[in-house]
Design the sequence.
C-alpha cells in the first residue's frame, strides 16, 4: 500500500479533459438493447457519465498499486466475493483485532491513507455490527468526495455506425449454461468528449486529499484513458487535451471554463462527417477570454495537449504549441506548466 | 400548504442565477425510476446556499424556516429531460443496511452489489437555469451570502441536486455586467403575468393558456441525527420558461421582474 503525504490541498482546481472515441462505444446504456451508446435525443450529442470516467480512474489507480476501496465488479470473481468488512481489511491491511485496538480517528486515517479512490471521490461505508463496533464511534459512515466531475457530452452531434455487427462469440449468461446468446455491436463513428470537474480544497480536508493526490490526477487521467480503454468496445479512445486551472483565490472557481472549448464550425468537418482527430478543430477563443478575465485569481494552468490536436485561435488554425503560447499570454509566462505525463511514473 | 409568513414588501433581497449542464431533483413520490422535479425545490435552494456558505450538514434548516426566510424561484430555461439508466443497488428487503452515523444513507453489501446490480433509470434535467431571490432574517447569513455572491466564491462545490450536476452561481442576472446581488422588493397589484413560479392559490385556469403544476418539499427541520420535511409547496410553472398568466393578483417586483416569494 502506498504512503500518502499529509500536505493538504490549499487551492481549488477546475479540470477540463477532452478525449475522443473513434469507432467505439464511449459509454453504453445498459437499459437499451445491446448496450447502445448513450445519446441525448434532443441534441444528438453522445453522453458519458461521471461514473464511467471514475471507473477508468479507479482501475488505473488499482493498476498503479494504489489501494482502492470501490472495486470493479466486472473484474471481480463471482465466487469468493469479499464482504464489506473484508473490503476494509483488504484495503487497509488491518484485521479486526488491530482495528479494535485503535481509536476511531486513527482507523479513519488508516482507511483514507490506503483507500486512494475514497480520498478523491468519497464513499459511503458500513460494516457488520461487530466490525462497526471495532471501528469505534469516530469512524464516519460517509465521506464526501472533494473531486467531482459532471456527466460529459460530445462537442457535436454523433453518428452511430449503420453497419451493425452480430458478435460471433457465444457467451453463456451464467456458469453451467449450455447455450449462450448472440449480441449486437453498437458503435459511434466518432465522438469528441469534454469532461468538466472541480477539486474542492475545503472538502479535501474531510478525506485527507493531499496536494500529491491532486498532482497525480494530471497524469492519472491521461494514462487511465489510454490504458483502461483496451477492451473491445472501448478501443479507439485517445486523451487529447487536459487542463487543470489552479486558483490562488480562496474558495473561487470560474465554473464554466469548459464552455469556452468547442468545435470550430468553419474549420471542422460537419458533425456527421467527423471520423478522426484530423477532421476536428477546437475553438478555444472563449476559454482564453475567460482565463484572461480570471487571470488575477489563477495561480497555475497545468496543461497536457496531444500533438495531433488542431486549435483555432482568432480564426487561425494552429497546433498545440500555439495553444500553450496563448495560455501564457492569457495568464502569464510563469503561470503555465506543461505536464510530463510519463516522466514521474517510470 | 405551508407558506412563508415573512412579508417581503419593502425589504431587500439577494438575487442570483444558478445554472448547470445537468440537474436531478429526486422526486419523492416515485420508486424504481428516479424521476426529477422540473423546478429546483425550495429545500434544494437552501442546501445550495448552505454549500455556498460552507454550512455543515443538518446545521442550517432554521435559517430557511417559514418565519425567517422568503424565496422566489424563476425557471430561465425550458424544461428538457434525458433518461440516464445506471446500474444501481438492489432494494430487496434484507439487502439494505443503514450506515452508522449517517442520516438518510443506506448501503448494500459489496457481495450483493457484485451479483445483484439492477438497471435503473435516472431522469436528468438538461441545461437548467434558475434565477433565485432570497430574503433572510438572519443578517449575518444574509451579509455572508451577499459577499459570497459579489466575490463569486463558494465554500463547497455547488451542485444541482446531485454532486455530478455541477452548478455555476452568478450574481444577479446572467446578462448583467455588474456584480450586484442586492435588490429592493416592491409591491405590485393587479398583476397579469408572473415571471417566477406561482403558488397554486394565485392561479386561475384560463382558456388557451397552459402551465404545469408541481408539488415539492419546501421546508425542513432537524430531527435528531436526521432531517424532516415540514412543508410542501404546490405551484404552477411554465415548462417553456415563460411568464405565467394570472388574474389581477398582487405580487412583488425585483430587478424589473414580477415574482412570488414563498
Sequence:
Amino acid at each position: 500500500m502506498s504512503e500518502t503525504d499529509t500536505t493538504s490541498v490549499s487551492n481549488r482546481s477546475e479540470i477540463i479533459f477532452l478525449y475522443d472515441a473513434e469507432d467505439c462505444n464511449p459509454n453504453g446504456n445498459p437499459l437499451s438493447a445491446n448496450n447502445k451508446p448513450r445519446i441525448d435525443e434532443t441534441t444528438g450529442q453522445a453522453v458519458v457519465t461521471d461514473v464511467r470516467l471514475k471507473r477508468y480512474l479507479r482501475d488505473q489507480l488499482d493498476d498503479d498499486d494504489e489501494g482502492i476501496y470501490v472495486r470493479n465488479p466486472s473484474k471481480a470473481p463471482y465466487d469468493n466475493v469479499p464482504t464489506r468488512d473484508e473490503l476494509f481489511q483488504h484495503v487497509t491491511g488491518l484485521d479486526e483485532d488491530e482495528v479494535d485496538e485503535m481509536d476511531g480517528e486513527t482507523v479513519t486515517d488508516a482507511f483514507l491513507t490506503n483507500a486512494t479512490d475514497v480520498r478523491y471521490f468519497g464513499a459511503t461505508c458500513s460494516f457488520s455490527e461487530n466490525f462497526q463496533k471495532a471501528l469505534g464511534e469516530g469512524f464516519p459512515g460517509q465521506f464526501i468526495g472533494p473531486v467531482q466531475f459532471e456527466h460529459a457530452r460530445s462537442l457535436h452531434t454523433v453518428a452511430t455506425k449503420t453497419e451493425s455487427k452480430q458478435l460471433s462469440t457465444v457467451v453463456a449468461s451464467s456458469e453451467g449454461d449450455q447455450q449462450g446468446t448472440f449480441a449486437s455491436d453498437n458503435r459511434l463513428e466518432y465522438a469528441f468528449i469534454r469532461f468538466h470537474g472541480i477539486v474542492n480544497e475545503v472538502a479535501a480536508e474531510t478525506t485527507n486529499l493531499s496536494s500529491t493526490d491532486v498532482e497525480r490526477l494530471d497524469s492519472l487521467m491521461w494514462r487511465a484513458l489510454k490504458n483502461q480503454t483496451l477492451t473491445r468496445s472501448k478501443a479507439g479512445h485517445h486523451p487529447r487535451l487536459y487542463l487543470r486551472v489552479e486558483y490562488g483565490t480562496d474558495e473561487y472557481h470560474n465554473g464554466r471554463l469548459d464552455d469556452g472549448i468547442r468545435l470550430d464550425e468553419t474549420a471542422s468537418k460537419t458533425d456527421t462527417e467527423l471520423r478522426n482527430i484530423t477532421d476536428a478543430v477546437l475553438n478555444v477563443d472563449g476559454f482564453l477570454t475567460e482565463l484572461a478575465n480570471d487571470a488575477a485569481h489563477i495561480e497555475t494552468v497545468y496543461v497536457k495537449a496531444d500533438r495531433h490536436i488542431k486549435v483555432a485561435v482568432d480564426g487561425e488554425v494552429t497546433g498545440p504549441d500555439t495553444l500553450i503560447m496563448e495560455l501564457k499570454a492569457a495568464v502569464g509566462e510563469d503561470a503555465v506548466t506543461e505536464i510530463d505525463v510519463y516522466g514521474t511514473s517510470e | 400548504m405551508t407558506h412563508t409568513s415573512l412579508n417581503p414588501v419593502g425589504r431587500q433581497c439577494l438575487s442570483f442565477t444558478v445554472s448547470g449542464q445537468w440537474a436531478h431533483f429526486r422526486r419523492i413520490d416515485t420508486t424504481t425510476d428516479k424521476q426529477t422535479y422540473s423546478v429546483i425545490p425550495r429545500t434544494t435552494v437552501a442546501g445550495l446556499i448552505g454549500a455556498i456558505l460552507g454550512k455543515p450538514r443538518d446545521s442550517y434548516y432554521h435559517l430557511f424556516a417559514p418565519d425567517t426566510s422568503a424565496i422566489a424561484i424563476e425557471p430561465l430555461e425550458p424544461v428538457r429531460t434525458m433518461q440516464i439508466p445506471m446500474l444501481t443497488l438492489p432494494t430487496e428487503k434484507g439487502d439494505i443496511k443503514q450506515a452508522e452515523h449517517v442520516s438518510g444513507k443506506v448501503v448494500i453489501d459489496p457481495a450483493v452489489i457484485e451479483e445483484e446490480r439492477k438497471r435503473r433509470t435516472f431522469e436528468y434535467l438538461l441545461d437548467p437555469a434558475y434565477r433565485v431571490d432570497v430574503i433572510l432574517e438572519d443578517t449575518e447569513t444574509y451579509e455572508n451570502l451577499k459577499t459570497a455572491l459579489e466575490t463569486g466564491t463558494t465554500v463547497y462545490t455547488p451542485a444541482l441536486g446531485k454532486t455530478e450536476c455541477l452548478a455555476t452561481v452568478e450574481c444577479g442576472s446572467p446578462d448583467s455586467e455588474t456584480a450586484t446581488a442586492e435588490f429592493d422588493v416592491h409591491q405590485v397589484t393587479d398583476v397579469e403575468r408572473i415571471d417566477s413560479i406561482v403558488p397554486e392559490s394565485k392561479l386561475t385556469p384560463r382558456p388557451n393558456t397552459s402551465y404545469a403544476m408541481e408539488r415539492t418539499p419546501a421546508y425542513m427541520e432537524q430531527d435528531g441525527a436526521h432531517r424532516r420535511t415540514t412543508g410542501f409547496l404546490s405551484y404552477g410553472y411554465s415548462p417553456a420558461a415563460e411568464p405565467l398568466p394570472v388574474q389581477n393578483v398582487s405580487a412583488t417586483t425585483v430587478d424589473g421582474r414580477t415574482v412570488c416569494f414563498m
